[in-house]
Amino acid sequence: MRLKDKLLDTGFAAWSAMRSSRKARSVSAYALVLSFIAFGAAGVAPAPDVSNLPVTLTVEELALPDLSAQLATLNPESQQFTAEERVRSGDSLGALLERLGVNDVQAANFIKSDEVAKALLRLRPGRTVRATVTSGGKLLAASTLIADNKSPVKNLSITRTDTGFVSQETEAAIERRTEMRTAEIRSSLFAATDAAQVPDAVAMQMVEIFSSDIDFGSDLRRGDYFKVIYETLWQGGEFVRSGRVLGAEFHNGSKTFQAVWYGQPDSDEGGYYDMNGKSLKKAFLKSPLEFSRVTSGFSMRLHPISGQWKQHKGIDFAAPTGTAIRAAGDGVVDFSGVQGGYGNMVVIQHGSNYSTAYAHMSHMAAGLRRGSKVKQGEVIGYVGTTGWSTGPHLHYEFRVANEARNPDSIAVPEAPALAGMDLQRFHRYVSTIAHRFVLLNTKEIQIAAR
Ligand SMILES: [Zn+2]
Fold first, then answer.
1. Distance 314 CA to ligand 1 centre (A)
2. C-alpha separations of 18 from 7, 8, 23, 30, 95 in Å
3. Domain ranges of the chain
4. pLDDT digits (tens, 9 = 90+) for 331-380
5. How far is the CA of 147 from the centre of ligand 1 (A)?
6. CATH tag for 77-172 (out of 3.10.450.350, 3.40.720.10, 1.10.630.10, 4.10.520.10)
7. Residues whose beta carbons lie less than 5 angstroms from ion ligand 1
């Protein structure tokens, strides 16, 4: 690419026009052809180091008939160029390689069969792949970033050797930036996060963070708003993916919830706390239904009619059949099977005092049986309408000492708050997040101005 850069620096109008081309390959290939024509005409031996070539070349001096004769003497395998392409939605490996100028069965077979190189087949649209290719279409080298939402970001490279190809994965040098967004909810949470260009992975983290306090399926009100501060990961000016939510504030009706990520130094361990150092993690989720882009706008809580609580003894959540049901808290499965009017039901025991029941399921999660240990948020089954049920919904019971109770009226035990040195460190750290929340206060200014 150095040749290309030099050419660009010469400032020819023609080159600046080519610069707008997305295909770096065509620029370099063209540059090479020009170079060889010029040097051929001057009687210089072919195959010089392209990076050292002078760049004051003009096309006009060359007679066209010489072109094909000159090109015919060039060995296509001795010429190489660098290409760069973005993965498109619905791309196949074949289509991607073709755009990169690769016509190489051996390379394609290696990518499909090599355990490391296979990752190329799972790239997301938008990801850039760079390749060094001969004029004859042989792949010499390829590289890209591998970045799913959980694992560290890695560089994947494939290199041609004398005998075939080798693949290598190395940790990528990543630059972290902090993004801040705020938006008001007018129709749905996802409409608001989309409008504010908050990635889905960040929106879902926010839902998770406040899931003990807010039932996103039914508690959201028009005019609610959020502020979110999160990391984004970049490499060489290219957006790689979003990272962790560092802080979030959610205004739900008259209530405001704040969360700050606080971790142990040099470790990935940590959790979300309010501004006073109290853990946001509670023993039970507010809603056992999984909230997603698909179910948002569908699921809602059917509040038991006043006075009917004693007869009904539970909360009904309307949701489409198949919506995932999650364990409200850590526990052990006490029952999984059919039980009369409850239909397919799971009961989870949480410690000695609490249990939760989930009824009318279409089916239970695979492998779930009496004695299975479950974690809070783990999927235990799916919404259905088995038993005495008139339509797909989840009947959820929260039981204290085996008696169904209204979970909203029960004070459940909470995780211990930060204390001592930890709390002091937390307070120093939290002030930077609090400052950022203030920076996002334009939202309040907008609302006040109405
Ligand atoms: Zn019910």
1. 6
2. 10, 9, 9, 10, 24
3. 1-74, 77-172, 283-413
4. 999 999 999 999 999 999 999 999 999 999 999 999 999 999 999 999 99
5. 43
6. 3.10.450.350
7. 314, 316, 395
